[in-house]
Amino acid sequence: MATETLADGVVQGGAAVGSCLGLDGSAIGMPQLCTDWMPNQIFWLLIALIAIYFFLSRIGLPRIGAVLAERQGTITNDLAAAEEMKLQAVAAERAYVEALERARADANKIAAETRADIQKDLDVALAKADAEISAKTTESEARIAEIRAGAMDAVTQVAKDTAKELVAALGGSPDARAVTAAVSARLKG
Amino acid sequence: MAEETGLVFHPMDQFIVKPLFGDGPVMWYTPTNATLWMLLAVVCVVALFVLGTRGRAVIPTRLQSVAEVFYGFIYKMVEDVTGHDGVKYFPWIMTLFLFIFFSNMLALIPTAFAPTSHIAVTAVLGFGVFIAVTVIGFVKNGASFLGMFWMKEAPLFLRPIIAVIEVISYFVRPVSHSIRLAGNITAGHAVVKVFAAFAGIALIAPVSILAITAIYALEVLVAVIQAYVFTILTCVYLKDALHPAH
Description:
The complex is a heterodimer of chains A (about 190) and B (about 250).
Chain A: H1 2-12, H2 38-169, H3 176-188
Chain B: H1 33-52, H2 62-82, H3 90-107, H4 119-141, H5 159-198, H6 205-242
């Protein structure tokens, strides 16, 4: 009677029939060691492994691999582009510096030329001015000499006349020729 | 069902394999809870890689960067450990890693089933790796693959002894490889269940719940680490097959 009840229990409890379950539906020992279930587990394990393998090798891994390769490619390309841009920037800087140097050299040259031109003009103008000045000086000296000579004659005449007048005023009868000779002698002395 | 009172400890019941639809025997083709959670792992893998890479964006979205992290992590592991000629096995190793990772993670959802806690599952994985690696070793290197067991650096009289030890350790690899994973997952889930059973006592419940929280955090770590360990050991075994001279 008791056996019957327990057997019913097994069926009603939904437990699998086999040697691994107790009559109350719980495990006897380790379920891991129950050989009844092993073919089932092995079969489904192989199904699962094959499914994962085919999925991974056909779809999963190639996709990730492609994405990673693409990223690597993008990074490499970007780095190469950056390197190229850097070289361009360096070249541009060098060209700029060169242009600057050239401009500075040109400016110096132009300044020197201008200075030389100005110097030449200046020299010419100075030479001309000097010539004019010396001409004027010569002329002036001639004039001065002339004036001085004129003045000397006038002084001689005045001296002679004055001498005659003095002699007359002192009551003498001036001998004109003698007075003149005396004054001339005096003036020479 | 007997009426049960007080503490009920059935920490192993969570590992029972049940048919999804109706009762009856578990045949090899029966869709069971193991089927469901394994296929959910498959769905997660597909979702991650299909939805994640939908945009194929050079600047990735969040989900795409997660997929890229998985890809990059495992790819680098394979390349670093096995060398460049191991890269063609990358899809297989990725399959193993993602299956174990998502199975472990999904198993942490309360009431979930943990396929990787079953030795039948991990043994297929472990022996699958073992057989594949051995076949690759002989195909790539021929009989010189056996040179892996014959240490030329050791003194002559030690070489046979070392060879015996090496052969034993070689054949123990798949056993430790599979039991490590199943044992870790089983132990963690069973411990959580034991603490949960203690939560039935009001006085202990707070401590119990705190403990569950702590163990759960540890289990998240274990889930990731075991997936990682299984994968990197696979890579190491593969390296031995590709370059047997060590």
